[in-house]
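Recap quiz, item 2
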Amino acid sequence: MIKVGIIGATGYAGAELVRLLLNHKEAEIVWYGSRSYVDQKYADVYRNYFQLVDNICRDDNMEKMAEQAEVVFTATPQGLCASLVSEEILKKTKIIDLSADFRLKDVNVYEEWYNLKHAAPQYLPEAVYGLCELYREKIKGARLVANPGCYTTCSILSLYPLIKEGLVDPATVIIDAKSDTSGAGRGAKVQNLFCEVNESIKAYGVAGHRHTPEIEEHLGYAAGKEVRVSFTPHLVPMNRGILVTAYASLSKQGLSEEDVKNAYRKAYGGEFFIRLLEEGVCPETRWVEGSNFTDIGFKLDPRTNRIVVMAALDNLVKGAAGQAVQNMNILFGLDEKEGLRSAPVFP
Amino acid sequence: MIKVGIIGATGYAGAELVRLLLNHKEAEIVWYGSRSYVDQKYADVYRNYFQLVDNICRDDNMEKMAEQAEVVFTATPQGLCASLVSEEILKKTKIIDLSADFRLKDVNVYEEWYNLKHAAPQYLPEAVYGLCELYREKIKGARLVANPGCYTTCSILSLYPLIKEGLVDPATVIIDAKSDTSGAGRGAKVQNLFCEVNESIKAYGVAGHRHTPEIEEHLGYAAGKEVRVSFTPHLVPMNRGILVTAYASLSKQGLSEEDVKNAYRKAYGGEFFIRLLEEGVCPETRWVEGSNFTDIGFKLDPRTNRIVVMAALDNLVKGAAGQAVQNMNILFGLDEKEGLRSAPVFP
Amino acid sequence: MIKVGIIGATGYAGAELVRLLLNHKEAEIVWYGSRSYVDQKYADVYRNYFQLVDNICRDDNMEKMAEQAEVVFTATPQGLCASLVSEEILKKTKIIDLSADFRLKDVNVYEEWYNLKHAAPQYLPEAVYGLCELYREKIKGARLVANPGCYTTCSILSLYPLIKEGLVDPATVIIDAKSDTSGAGRGAKVQNLFCEVNESIKAYGVAGHRHTPEIEEHLGYAAGKEVRVSFTPHLVPMNRGILVTAYASLSKQGLSEEDVKNAYRKAYGGEFFIRLLEEGVCPETRWVEGSNFTDIGFKLDPRTNRIVVMAALDNLVKGAAGQAVQNMNILFGLDEKEGLRSAPVFP
Amino acid sequence: MIKVGIIGATGYAGAELVRLLLNHKEAEIVWYGSRSYVDQKYADVYRNYFQLVDNICRDDNMEKMAEQAEVVFTATPQGLCASLVSEEILKKTKIIDLSADFRLKDVNVYEEWYNLKHAAPQYLPEAVYGLCELYREKIKGARLVANPGCYTTCSILSLYPLIKEGLVDPATVIIDAKSDTSGAGRGAKVQNLFCEVNESIKAYGVAGHRHTPEIEEHLGYAAGKEVRVSFTPHLVPMNRGILVTAYASLSKQGLSEEDVKNAYRKAYGGEFFIRLLEEGVCPETRWVEGSNFTDIGFKLDPRTNRIVVMAALDNLVKGAAGQAVQNMNILFGLDEKEGLRSAPVFP
């Protein structure tokens, strides 16, 4: 049994890690770290775990945790993981960081978009971006995995093959993303109250959301050059689920559906967690809820010579805790699907 | 592997059976029966199963199914199972009926409340009421299990111990139940459209809902005499979950919390799927969603000499498909928790 | 034009007062009082009023307000109004208090249930309980109106006529109430976050909710003796609306629907804002949303010799701001419907 | 009092017309037309109108209606209005058609996108497109007004000024729209059931939605040349509200916020129903719910040299019934705001 520690176990992503790991045959949580609920029963914070988890919340002491855990998940706001990581810790344990601290290779980009001094830039070169389907080989040997964001996973997975194969002009990429509300976290803020979110939709962070450079970095790798995209997130009144609708101009006239499918097949042909939908089928978040799947569909529009690509995933699973567990499975040489086989829950 | 057939696989309860059985190590679905979607791919009806279920929907032919399946689940409206069952079929396969056909022992009560002629009353004496925690021993040897309704499971489980132990006056029992919308089924009706259900709550079937006699029969067994209760269901804008709030006058003054707890412990002490909440904790449907748990809590009210008992369950799991799988596990001598161990999903 | 001041204009009830008063021909808001948003534009706090309200939020200074306003609404938590009211103020302005401070005649009951020292018990005898349909005549001459709570209005209106006419046994009254989430206020609390409320239902304050003694006091007036009821509130994932389902044993066998209807007609025959539904029709909160109506329906249950009474209202309108405006109209001799004529909004 | 007839009064848009007209001082509904509910009480179909509307539903006979009504609203699916209109009728009454029949000037475009033979193309030249803020003068003298669609109103209003003033390149326009569920109508379809819509988001009609040519026609007028746009609608789990997020490349570098604001001010400077939001404020559907407002905001993105324009409206008001009443007010020379002054309802 792999011994697991979680920093930030009482946030939504942390609680989802618990759910998935309870179902994992080779892992055992030995430390439920929390800032706000130290010494309280974890199952009093998340009553769904009543009689399933007996543990008490402990603090976020990564040093002690590293002595007991073979892998530490940090499901905390940006800045914390970077402030805790050290050579000593990395010698003892592997870290899968669900925050943004080690996602961007360029420390200046990080500091500009997050408005935060990076506390451990020396680990940026070593950190591996944990988008499993694209970087599996690199993840295998990593000590420090930067688990991608929810918007990012959905955006990159949907666009990467098209750009890689040169089917679209990267300069024309526009990503319109729609997110559930659990992505906003469990902090007590007026803007996330039920009555404020329910029965409404809005955009936010327009032309300035922090996931933008993360998307651009990886689409840039696909393009072989710098890429700039428009990225607009929206808040939707639902608990889970992200939908990305992305637009791009085709790089030449007359591209066929088969051309597009081939690009996706080439990239994701054998991938269990990526489902390429049949022709004319639009992904819907309800069909992936609770699971680690990303559903991808597309539609060519000859009238405008554009392609519309759509992808749906569960922000707490493939967009956070599920991909983190998938990364753990890769790190420890386990079946990548372990703990992640459950079918989506509907309705 | 136990071979399973499902009649009504394209309703919500049927689809939930599929979800749970995909996760079951000892069972395999060999027949996806449907009336409306014959010859269509099952995963086209429920796209959450895309690439997980390759089967085609077949008809509802129970005779043929009985030749291929060791157990048949009928997740259909009342009347159908009774019209199909026969000695020949019961010799070949076990039946777990999720409809109301074999729940009530008295055929007259059935015909009065359901306004339907019973097509196979000869099997009523043999049928076992599949409320696992109360009738486990009888279920073990059954050929025909009448899987309880969602409201009924929640109502009986919450009140049975109090009546059995004589703590409350059965004549004073009032059950106010609140249900999600999946319980209304997947039929295309104006009253179940999103805009009709969303942002509203209503009672329905007041003083006449068909689950009433089922509740009364089993509370009557506990009381050792005939019992009449008030039962009022309500429709709540959510996908899953039933909450029962039940009221009863205490049979004597001065009953303590410990007295009540003892009654529940006696009835459910070792039961995995029944969680007796700690003092002062009210059950909430969100804490059981997606799982087979029933959470039970209570509050004594010395001012009125009443007790308020509350219970929450997921109508599609413990209130339908989950309990059906639990019954299958009992019938086939498997670990009762097999396929049902997943923690509740929150948020 | 009546000059109006609002203390607590930035809570949900305060914002609803603004909505209704903007539509009122004889009233004009001269003071938008707030604790948290002083000096901010009111329309920045509630952007629905962008370009409709130009005012700036001011503090909660009731003395100054009393010099400018002919009537002051206090839409604040309990305790504040009692701490501010004085003879000097009451000589200058009328007060309609939406909090609980002056609802209960017995100061001991107030202090026990609210766990709060009452700061101005000397005004309790003078204060008039503003349940318009029951106490209209007393309201007319009042200086200080205690506007009833949302649960209370719905509970009292539905049960008062039955008890008054002796049709039910008051000792058997059980009130199971279901509330939207705006009733929980706009404070930033984890328990009211979208993801915590959405897709769930729970009871709370069981056998101890503060609206209980308010209901008991007024049903006691109807009964001519002290009454104790069971009252259980529930939280429902919707923005607006309260549904009460109340149970009581009939005082004699054989009561007819006509008997019951007559009791309601006698009490509410000419009342515009109370709609007695036709036979067999259950009230639903969606049919009153946004309006000042209370819809009442009932069902006799000869099997249990009980009656089930149901009532629905919009908690922010008839349950708070709407009734407050109705009280203002009575106080100033205006048409009671002024500002409150809009039909319910559906869907 | 203007006598009004409604064809399709029992759909959601028809019911909203009733709500608005009940609040209108100069109009009176004399005919509630319906196909499915003939001879039933209108208030039995929409119980929010209980005791407010006593009328019985009548059929959709436009000839008879034209004798009694000075204006007829047709709130029906495409095809019906065109099949009923005639010179005789237009001599007696004005028609405001909420369907698509007379929106597109080019009959071929209509027949291609709607896959329907147009029954009365002879009236296309005469029909006036009822987007009030753009075509007020033409509307004044019209006999036949084609009331715009909900997506269309929101899309055209947000983009028209930018194209008209040459600030953006029309060929780059991409419109990503998000709609509530009432826009899908009250028909009993599985896909619109509560459990199918709730907790999910999806795109539909990608690269082929019928509102596309309507948007293109009017943006084309602004551009002075043919325009082709990408338009993608999405379904959001809420009752009311449309949000448009539109993207376009700026026609030159260095355009300032002031340049953009001036374009909007020039187009909508004195318009009551269009609210240009302050800098950095994103429109949200909750702030316009129940009202006739369209809120417009934008954000310049120098990184990509694009502008992101956002607009929110209530699909049943400004997107259907409200604009229809606004058109009626223009047609009859009334104050354009009559019946439409109510502030948005929040929460």
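The longest helix of chain D spans residues 150-164.
Chain D has twelve helices and 13 strands.
End of item.
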